[in-house]
Amino acid sequence: MFYIYCPYCGEHREEEEFHPKGQAHLARPENPDECTDEEWGNYLYFRDNPRGIHHEIWVHAIGCRKFFNVTRDTQTYEIKESYRMGATPEVTHANDPLS
Amino acid sequence: MTQTNRLNTGGRIDRSQPVTFQFNGQSYQGYRGDTLASALLANGVDVVGRSFKYSRPRGIVAAGAEEPNAVFQLGATEATQVPNVRATQQDIFDGLVAQPTSGWPNLNFDFMGTFSKVFGRMLPPGFYYKTFMFPQAAWETYEKYIRKAAGLGRSPRVKDADTYDHMNQHTDVLIVGAGPTGLAAALSAARAGARVILADEQAEMGGSLLATRDQLDGQAAADWVKATLDELAGYDHVQLLPRSTVNGYHDHNFLTIHQRRTDHLADKAPDNISRQRLHRVRAKWVLLATGAHERPLVYGNNDVPGCMVASAVSTYINQYAVAPGRRLVLMTSNDYAYRTAFDWQDAGREVVAIVDSRHDVSGRYQEEARRRGIKLLLGQGVIEARGNKRVDGAVVAQLDPTGDKVVGGGRVLDCDTIATSGGWSPALHLSCHTGSRPVWDDEVIGFVPGKTVQQQLVAGAVAGTFTLNECLKEGAQKGAEAAALAGFPSQAVKTPSTEHWPEAKPMALFCVPHKKRNSRAPKQFVDFQTDVTAAAIELATREGFESIEHVKRYTAMGFGTDQGKLGNINGMAIAAKSMNKTIPETGTTIFRPNYTPVTFGAIAGRHCRDLFDPMRYSAMHEWHVKQGAEFEDVGQWKRPWYFPKPGETMQQALDRECLATRESVGILDASTLGKIDIQGKDAREFLGRVYTNAWAKLPVGKCRYGLMCHEDGMVFDDGVTSCMGENHFVMTTTTGGAAGVLEWLEFYHQTEWPEMEVYMNTVTDHWATMTIAGPNARKLLSELTDDINLDRDSFKFMDWRQGTVAGVPARVFRISFTGELSYEINVQANYGLHVWEKLFEHGAKYNLTPYGTETMHILRAEKGFIIAGQDTDGSVHPYDLGMSWAVKEDKPYSFIGKRGMKREDCVRDYRKQLVGLKTKDPSIVLPEGAQAVDDPNHPIPVPMLGHITSSYYSANLGRSIALGVVKGGHDRMGETVYYPLTDGRVVEAEICSTIFLDPKGERQNV
Amino acid sequence: MSEVINKTVDEATQVAIMDQCPTADVPARSPLAHQDQSSKVAPQNPGVFLWEDALKTHLVLRGDANNADFRQGIEAATGLDLPEALQSTQSDDWALGWIAPDEWLLTGPGDQAFAMETTLRKHLSGHYAVINVSGGQTLVRLAGPEARSVLMKSCPYDVHDRNFPIGKIVNTVLAKSQATIRRLGENDWELVVRRSFADYIWRWLMDASGEYGLHLGQPDAATAARQSNPSRANPVEG
């Protein structure tokens, strides 16, 4: 049971209030119609499965209904940070010394 | 029976309050303050169960959660049965009824006992895997009897008489364990002002201080306990939870506490009070002060009743005033356990000898033993217990200095109790629950909690700190630290102290060697609950199981309800020695939740029966109930399924509802459809991106049907969206899809197109929606409104109008899911029932007929209208559905799903396509899910063409109708396919249009 | 009400508006109208009071909190400050609670929905929305010395004084549904619940209140006075 900081409510809330929405920072291609099947398939189906730092989207579904990003360690389940849509993470795989 | 082992003085029991209880069909007496275990020992009950595999008689070994043998079935009635209760943690009360869970057919004789005496050598580890697996079909028979003989307890066969509930807690500091460490910690944290929860699994808080004869600052330790608890109870930011086991430590400092609120009071809880409560705790910081479990030594026949853990013997004497025997042999590898011999002697019983495995040891404890005239046998060990249902002797022999082998001949000491101590294993279970691996500490001779990512501190014995003074100090200090970390700057409280006797270095001894090899020696039990012996562990390592996790699984060590609290470390040591490795080299063992068994009731809480899941009601629900509707679950909604009249079968009711609607007028409660209010200047563009069809030109006052696809191009929801104003739309979704669709829309708005000016809110519950459908719908509506022009040329199909219906402001949508002339009337839900009833007042003359979801399904299937989620399954795109008319390819923005439906796989031939199906025999209704084949006589595997998605009997058409997907179906009109059914029949059906009735749509354009 | 003209579309925003309350004498049924809401035999010293504050106006307001015009418009129309995150503001008749960074809930007298919506639209401009949800939700009130215990049994959010002072508003899980919980007083709480879930939540709260002594209905003056002394011996924990 995670305890997740909602950057919009400014509080930690119980996991029950949230829904996970998968990997973060996947931009929808500008021109989907011009994507090859392979490019589109990569966007649609292929996801990272890192051991360690992972950026993911959550929505405060039973709360403020806002989507935001979470940086989570997939080994320890530690949540390193929550940040709003459009922001960049401070903790990344590159700068986290433990992962 | 009398309490033969009860001491005349001392203990914390109340001799003025006798309590009568039953065990194994016999009545016993104990005192208030007794646990079931202490009361049984007081009564001289030696055998409390039979062992799992060998069916050997077993007695009480320990005094706490680690007890492996005295695990009982409780309950005076069938409805109050509880399995797996540890007698050491159950208070007695008048009328308590306990049964041993093991020992079928009975405690004194059983078939397994005889069986295993004869075949004992044939029950090696893996025996069950190796033997009962063949023939496989018989396993279910074997299993029933094995389980019964093994004694795994059972749940009640009738409805539980009690209730259970949950309590959500938040705290700054959760302290687990209210022994000396936990109490001192709680004082520090509480005085700092932090919110504190102090939880302890025993009935009384105080832990080892309740059973010690040590004094604190010259006062009885129990006095300090009382003063401390009194102070803590006085703080309103402190919560004391006795009888509450912290059972699980989960991510982000979420812990579950299983509180037994009334188990000590009576068989059944008082009315309105839950028997047990599960506290769901989110703690800023956790301090584990869980103490340690004393390790028994492993030796031959060490499971004979009368063999006990040394500290447990002291606890029974000091806390419960029970001396569980007459003549004690104490065997130890450390000084501390000498206290048990002293307690025993001071209770007026005979200490036959202290057998100490260390050769060269002298200090305060040895001095005291000699002063007391107790025989001290150094460098020796108890290699074997004698006796059957009770110890009657201990075989003692000289050991070599490392404790690896017996070097002298044995002799028998006459005794009835053997207490042993191999040192203490920190009770680090909770620290493992979140994945932290324990680390071996040679000083402690045990595992201590390892690194963790949790906000967790440890103090006292669990951290390897064993002396009372140090535990108190460390508790006070760590309690202050936890409070400070949680934001409450704090200082450690001053703790009392006791006179400390220096202890000589303990010896790392786990299994006392026998004269014979372990495989030939009398059974040396490591895990009592699963009957795992030292020899079995050695055999497992010889058979190639090198990792301790594999050894555990092969032998079943640690797999009982006690999770091997007493035996695991001994087992690891034996495995390590057998492989010539160190203990840490064999790996560590991870404990998992729950620490002790939790009732299902406590886990479920109040989420059961009528409160199991929300039941969502529309504003007209009361009316449906009164009309005797049968209900169907759609998501969490209770929707009327059909409205049977007295004596009607379901099919008769459906036929009547269908015919009445097409012949005159029917009414459906459509309130459950999802409704999303969309406002903002970009609302129209937004719709164009999320729907597959065009929205740019839909005028105000008009409605349009739309399909929604995911990025993969597959349909996931549909509905009608109406243009309320140039910048205002109301979208409808399927009943079950409502919440998901809104979240999906928000996802795109918030993550992909945050620049779009649009606000979306659910108005599902705000509007009550009633659909009147049928040739007389206009006539009926005209009687209830005078401000809407219902003229067919004014209020056209797919128009909506605002007006007043039955005196209530309404939005009326002329849309149709039946193919009939149809109006959806929306009023604010508080007036829904009023309008509904007015419709019936006026509708009687038109035979206004309420219909439910089933008739709705039939009527829409007659028209070939799909239901997203029934006729689609996430692998169907709009073209598969024959709905290319609902896809607008040339919209400027590449709408969600557009690219997906262009993937190679989506544009290929021979995809499964939705078609209508008419069975050759019109009376046969195909089962949904039936698979189509071209040739039913084709040898297996038969190529599958697709399946039936919707299938009904249509009273209007006088025949069955079905929708289904068939490979290449759109090009196979008029062809025949076959549906082989599970009952052997093969049903022949003709592929046809999905529209069975009124293909030109004339009925709704009137 | 007399000044309000029932127009179909608001000119400025091009959004459909509608006075949804009937003028004729039409009975309204609140979401909990079917529940018996009065204790026939009230317990001696109830720990919990439970009642429905039915048929109020509920308007969802959407807009940009950082837009001064929006803030001022809300304040001018409602007389209430636009509350910050997780806060609420309150006048005699109206309460305004924060729901999300761009969403607030305005509750007030039941017959004022359209008048208030019209007033709001008069004072607001730009990108905003007003959505009437009066039929879609109701207010459940929970009071008494053990009201907080009932909430602890029901929702995972921390309702302790230190985390949930008077005036705070939180949308969270309640049993297996959800509620927007606002603390009105020391022992006085308001739950905004959706119509379709109201029956389930009502039954859940009745059940959770059982052990504390439940009085269905508002406390009278005398009982309210007694509530200021919340010490009750717990029959089990002692």
From TrEMBL, chain A:
GO terms for molecular function: sarcosine oxidase activity. One of its GO terms (biological process) is tetrahydrofolate metabolic process. It holds the Pfam family SoxD. InterPro entries: SoxD, SoxD_sf. NCBIfam families: soxD. This is Sarcosine oxidase subunit delta. It comes from Saccharospirillum salsuginis.
TrEMBL record, chain B:
Residues 912-998 form the Aminomethyltransferase C-terminal domain. Keywords: Aminotransferase, Oxidoreductase, Transferase. Residues 522-606 form the SoxA A3 domain. GO terms for biological process: tetrahydrofolate metabolic process. Residues 620-891 form the GCVT N-terminal domain. GO terms for molecular function: sarcosine oxidase activity; transaminase activity. Residues 172-428 form the FAD/NAD(P)-binding domain. InterPro entries: 2Fe-2S-bd_N, BFD-like_2Fe2S-bd_dom_sf, FAD/NAD-bd_sf, FAD/NAD-binding_dom, GcvT/YgfZ/DmdA, GcvT/YgfZ_C, GcvT_C, GCVT_N. NCBIfam families: soxA (TIGR01372). Belongs to the GcvT family. This is Sarcosine oxidase subunit alpha. It comes from Saccharospirillum salsuginis.
From TrEMBL, chain C:
The gene is soxG-1. This is Sarcosine oxidase subunit gamma. It comes from the Bacteria. GO terms for molecular function: sarcosine oxidase activity. It holds the Pfam family SoxG. It comes from Saccharospirillum salsuginis. GO terms for biological process: sarcosine catabolic process.
